[in-house]
Every structure is written in C-alpha cells, then in structure tokens.
Write a structure and sequence with these properties.
Layout lengths: L2 E2 L5 H14 L1 H9 L25 H4 L11 E4 L9 E4 L1 H19 L6 E6 L6 H16 L2 E4 L5 H11 L5 E6 L1 H13 L9 E5 L6 H10 L7 E7 L3 E5 L2 H12 L2 H7 L6 E3 L1 E2 L4 E5 L2 E6 L5 E14 H10 L13 E8 L7 H9 L6 E12 L2 E10 L7 H16 L4 E9 L6 E2 L2 E2 L4
Parallel strand pairs: 4-5, 4-6, 6-7, 7-8, 17-18
Antiparallel strand pairs: 1-12, 2-3, 8-9, 9-11, 10-15, 12-13, 13-14, 14-15, 16-17, 19-20
Length: about 450
Amino acid sequence: MIKLLNPLDEKDILKVFTKNSVNCEAYQDFLSQRGITQLNSVEDIPITDKDNYFRKYSLMQKLHKGMQLSDYYMICSSSGSTGEPTFWPRDMQRDELAEKGHTAFLDEHFNVLSKKSLIVVALDLGSTTAGLMHTRLSWDLSKKTNATVITPGCRPSQTADMIENLYQYYDQVVLLAYPTLINEILDYAIEKNFSFQKWNLKFGYTGSGANEIWRLELINKYHLLPSSIISFYGCTETGFIGVESKAVNNLINVCLENPFLIKKIFKTDYLPTIIDEVTPNKYFEIIDSELIITVDQPIPLVRFNLHDEASIISVNQIKRILDKENIPADLSNFKNQNWLVIHGRKHNMHFSIEEVQKAIDSSNTRALLKEFQYKESFNNDLIVINFVLYQKNKIKLSQKEINQIHSQLTKIFQAKHKCQIRLTIKKEAERIGYKSGKLSYFL
C-alpha cells in the first residue's frame, strides 16, 4: 500500500505519467517493454530507478521529445560518491520558481531580507547539483536586499579565512554546507584564534552525518543558538526539495532537551531530517519505507525511487505524543499538516550512515575526525563490521582509549544485531577526504 505525502497529488502524478508516456522516448519504451497500456490508478504505474530506467537509456532519449541539450541553460551532475556521476539538465523557468522558496526559507529563519547577509556556499562547486543550485538560488537574494554570495566550496581553511576577512561588513554570515565540513571550518577558526564568536553565524546544512549529538555539539562546543541551525533536503535528480520550518526547528530543539522523544516520535535511534515545506510540483509517495518522486522536468521522473528511507508523520500525531508526555512545544506555525521524514540513503546494509555516525559520536572522544569508512560482511551467522576512523593531528590515542572506543561501538551495534567490530585507527594525513564535496563512507 502506498502513502502519499498529500492525497490530492494522485491526479497530478497521473497527469505527469500521461504526458510523458507519449512525450518521452525512454519512458515510452520502458512502458512498452512492460506491456503497460491502461491504468486505473497510480499504483498501476511501474516504479523506476537508476538501474531499471535511468542507466538503460541515453541522455537524449530521456529528454522530452523535440528538445536538445542546448535548449537548457545548465547541466548539473551527481557527486559520484555512490557510483558513476549522472547528468541532469536544468530548466531556467523551473529554477526561477525555486528561487522564491529558497529565499523564503532563509528569511523565515534568519531574516535575510532585512539584514546584510554574507551567504557562504561551502558545497562542491564543480558541476554538482548541491553547490551550483544553492549558489544559483542564493543570487536571488541580491536582487531584493543587501546580500553577497561567496563560493569557497569544500575547503574548510579557505572558507574560514574568507569569513574572517569579510564578516565585519555584514550583520550575519549564513553558511550552507555539509555537517562534517561545518565542524572542520569551526575547528580551524578556533585553532587560528579567529574572531569567530563575532561572525554571527547561521547554518543551513544538508547530507549525512547530522544527528542530535552533532547538533548538541554545535550548540555547546561552539556556543550557538539552537535556532541558528537549520536543515534542507535535496537530491541530484531533482535539486532543491524541501526545508525545515520554524515549527520543525522548535520540535527538534524539544527533542534535544528530551532525547527519548526521538524514538517515540520518529521510531529511530537518531534525529532524522524533517521537511515541512516541499518545493511545488514535486509529488512524493512512500512505498516499503522508500521515497518515490514524480516530477515533470527536463528529464522527467515518474514514480522514481530515490532509495532514501523515509516516512510521513502528521502534526496531530506529534502533538498527541507531546501531550501524553506532558511536554510543551510551539508547533503553531507549521506549513503543512503532514511532514516528510528522511531517515537516510538505503544501501542494503543493516546499519545506515546516520546510525554509524551517531555510534561514533557517542564514543565521546575529541581525538577523532568526523570522517569514517565502514563495510559490512558475513562470517557464518555474524555480521562483521570493519571500521576505519581517523585521529586528529597532534593527538595520539593510547591503546586503552582505542579499546574503549571499540568496546563502545560493539555495545551499540550488538544491541541491534549479532555482530563483530573490527576497528582500524589511521592518522589524519591518511584520510580520503572529500570527493566532489562529500565524504566517502564506504570501504
């Protein structure tokens, strides 16, 4: 049984299907091979994904009929962090519509329309969707107010250097980055004795590696306000998807104060990404706990499986849990009755990246970098998990400390599955680092 984020979207999904069943060569062939001639409901439309659809056809076949690549103003690519890069043409009109949502998101949380803001896009700026699109969408602010965009990319030291030199000319600095990169930027600023407490930093983050431990570290270690840390969600296939509202931010901060609520509300051991407001003309379903998207764009996607683990929760459900626990939370300014909850990318493994990151964070050692790699394998009925962690420069972990980390990881993972932990600690100089802006989490 499918779950639609908005039940009214069913007609729109059928419209996108009908249009592209005759207007896209690749999709026509995909349907023909499956003998699809007549539909009674959305559930009759076959699911597509990268393996059964996207990689089967050439780039030109996947475009709308009669269109050429030269008809589109920009081409983005995936990072290639989980496989070969894929290419996605961008449509000017659609991206101009997305500008409004991006500006409204930043203004709701940070009042960017009334403050002089330095927007720092610390996302990869090759051809990847994340860096290019957030730069492109942030330019909209400069049309309306005093906002400047700088694009240091995924370079922590250069990013911190730029901010240190420029912050004094602005009311605030808004940093858009991946979670792990944010830590590296701030640690570098502290190491260099920068005036980082005067930066008036605000954060918008996306990607893996964020959980309640990470948010609390930003708040406590770097003395930041909880409301200054917000999340957004997007993907290579369709760009900017949705954002955290003030109501979501209020709920997250209540969960940080009452961690047991995370399990009660979201049925997970870590804090997921929660989306209140979704970009218009993008339609979502949850099937077998995976996120399915339909969107009519240069490369149209009809019931395309993003393979992100997701769920839907209503504001009323959340309120009932909070009332039962007698915990107040201001959820009055929500945008939608149903919220999209993103738990992370499915990789056909027993543990998600988010679970692994939280387990490492809970070891509570300042000696380790946020970067890690891991791999699951099997030995008879045991899950064997190989870990590579990195110790920071100028820090040498004792064997006792390494044993404590190993013991903590074993305790956490064995609570869920029968497993064996194999741990390797490497020097910071041996780290793999960022690949097209993202960390590689797999061995």
